[in-house]
From TrEMBL:
Name the UniProt record assigns to this protein: Sigma-54-dependent transcriptional response regulator
Keywords of this entry: ATP-binding, DNA-binding, Nucleotide-binding, Phosphoprotein, Transcription, Transcription regulation
Every Sigma-54 factor interaction domain range: 148-372
Matches recorded under Pfam families: AAA_lid_14 (PF25601), HTH_8 (PF02954), Response_reg (PF00072), Sigma54_activat (PF00158)
Modified residues (4-aspartylphosphate): 56
Xref: SUPFAM superfamilies: CheY-like, Homeodomain-like, P-loop containing nucleoside triphosphate hydrolases
UniProt source species: Citrifermentans bemidjiense (strain ATCC BAA-1014 / DSM 16622 / JCM 12645 / Bem) (Geobacter bemidjiensis)
Response regulatory domain sequence ranges: 7-121
GO terms of molecular function: ATP binding; sequence-specific DNA binding
Gene3D superfamilies cross-referenced by the UniProt entry: 1.10.8.60, 3.40.50.2300, Homeodomain-like, P-loop containing nucleotide triphosphate hydrolases
Keyword Transcription regulation: yes
Example GO biological process: phosphorelay signal transduction system
């Protein structure tokens, strides 16, 4: 039985809702107080301390967000659960961003779920009252997928929200600069959801030409086009009951956008060349490093698709905006290879003073290389490498960088072709600089294709084909010919990669 001193406040103008919760929660041993309006809620808050408040989003004299603010200002330890209908889920999620514990969707048909939710909220409220907020309920799941969260408040708030919405079947849009960990966050959401035992499939919407991506997503029927010798299932079928990550969604072409919208609206799609709709139950997470609102204004992204994808928006801060997390992350990447190695204080200072244009991916690369270079038991600043030492510093330190690593993309792209034109110049760059250059070239290609799409210019096929072959060759070289790893990096299925290697006549293993 629950501690009878645990008080719950129900605020709803519908008498039936108040009666329902009073009965349900009193039976569980809670003390329940009900209020049908703002004045009644205020006097209840004057009279007693509550552990949990269940608040309707729409009331005749006020709204749930206003009540949330009132409750949190008067009783910060009281956890607020917002009650909402399907059409107002977005507002309920916004309430969670403002400090609500969770939301509960009407109609209330899962009694167990309600009891568990109130129980968890009451436990959390009691910890807050004791001043103990050291327990992060998401910590175990994060550890399970190798997701290091750190201690910066912005990141912790975001992950806490991600954990709570993971359990709801709503679309999530992840926004963040390159290498900030969008895919890791998506894996975390999948692992925290009830789909955890089912497939998680990432697909990069910018990596493949439109017709290949369409086949990849929706599959094709036998005979749909020359060479389609057998029916093939697409990712929407393979990910059934699981989660699909649409990475770089901003690069999806208008035709792909229309098809994605249709699946999200109806839960149905057709294979290429197919005549029969196929049902799928897939939770979609989309990720982007471009500003989709701007893309909508420029008419390169559909507003209706954005609306569907953006039920919850999670923004991952850039690494330089959470420099307090750099030591933990740096140690994480070092310990993945060698648990004995320590990091000198000077090294940590250097790492925290750098601007990290490539974010966590770049940090991981720098630390992995440092482990290889270091031959003692401590990683010293010199192990971070010459390029790093001359690299862009965080804004407060100023920069004297002369190598090609400013985060300023436009300047970088202006000098890009100049650098690539001279083999001599390229020879002088080290692996990290070359990788950055390659990154910028890809970005330039993506921008270029975007503009061509907008202008309805069809790129010469041989150009795409070459770049596709090059991309695949690079991925294979990067992962020593390991098909599974290379396919993962490209965001395509292993079988597709095998097929492409064959089609493009590339040397495979
Ligand atoms: N919080 C984190 N904890 C541990 N590893 C992380 C974290 N964030 C990112 N990484 C690592 O950094 C690398 C890049 O992460 P990820 O691919 O998720 O970034 P991304 O934002 O999806 O990149 P892109 O924009 O290029 O698609 C991966 O190796 C990933 O494992």
């Amino acid at each position: 039985m629950t501690d009878s001193s645990t008080r719950i406040l129900i605020i709803d103008d519908e008498r039936d809702v108040c009666t329902f919760f009073s009965r349900l929660l009193s039976r569980k041993g809670y003390q329940v107080v009900t209020a049908a309006s703002e004045p009644e809620a205020l006097s209840a808050l004057e009279a007693a301390q509550f552990s949990v408040a269940l608040v309707d989003l729409k009331l005749p004299d006020t709204d749930g967000i206003t009540l949330l603010e009132i409750i949190k200002s008067r009783q910060p330890a009281c956890e607020v659960i917002i009650m909402t209908g399907y059409s107002t889920v977005k507002t309920a999620v916004a309430a969670m961003q403002l400090g609500a514990y969770e939301y509960l969707e009407k109609p209330f048909d899962d009694i167990d779920q309600i009891e568990q939710l109130v129980g968890r909220a009451a436990g959390s409220g009691a910890s807050l009252l004791r001043g103990d907020n050291s327990h992060d309920e998401w910590a175990e799941v994060a550890q399970g997928v190798g997701f290091r969260v750190g201690s910066s408040p912005s990141m912790k708030r975001m992950v806490s929200l991600a954990y709570k919405v993971a359990g709801k079947d709503i679309s999530v849009l992840i926004q963040g600069k390159t290498g900030t960990g969008k895919e890791v966050l998506a894996r975390f959401i999948h692992a925290a959801s009830c789909r955890a035992g089912q497939p998680f499939i990432p697909v990069n919407c910018g990596a493949l030409p439109e017709n290949l991506l369409e086949g990849e997503l929706f599959g094709h029927e036998k005979g749909a086009f020359t060479g389609a010798n057998q029916t093939r299932r697409g990712i929407f079928e393979l990910a059934n009951n699981g989660t699909l990550l649409l990475d770089e969604i901003g690069d999806a072409t208008p035709q792909i956008q229309v098809k994605l919208l249709r699946v999200l609206e109806t839960g149905e799609f057709m294979r290429v060349g197919g005549e029969r709709p196929i049902r799928t139950d897939v939770r979609v997470i989309a990720a982007t490093n471009v500003d989709l609102e701007q893309a909508i204004a420029e008419k390169s992204f559909r507003e209706d698709l954005f609306y569907r994808l953006n039920v919850v928006r999670l923004e991952i801060p850039s690494l330089s905006a959470r420099s307090e997390d750099i030591p933990l992350l740096a140690e994480h990447f070092v310990h993945q290879i060698n648990r004995e190695l320590k990091l000198a204080a000077g090294t940590l200072r250097m790492l925290q003073g750098y601007a990290w244009p490539g974010n966590i991916r770049e940090l991981a690369n720098v630390m992995r290389r440092a482990v290889v270079i270091c031959n003692g038991d401590t990683i010293l600043p010199e192990h971070l490498g010459g390029t790093f030492l001359a690299g862009p510093t965080a804004p407060e330190r100023g920069s004297a960088a002369k190598t090609i690593q400013q985060p300023d993309r436009s300047r970088l792209q202006a000098t890009l072709l100049e650098h690539c034109d001279s083999a001599e110049e390229l020879e002088r760059l080290d692996a990290e600089e070359l990788n950055r250059l390659l990154d910028s070239l890809r970005q330039a290609q993506s921008n270029l294709l975007g503009v061509m799409r907008k202008k309805k210019i069809v790129p010469a096929l041989h150009a795409l084909k070459d770049s596709e072959a090059e991309t695949i060759k690079e991925a294979l070289a990067q992962y020593d010919g390991n098909i599974t790893e290379a396919a993962r990096a490209l965001g395509i299925a292993r079988n597709t990669l095998y097929r492409k290697i064959k089609e493009l006549g590339l040397p495979g293993r």
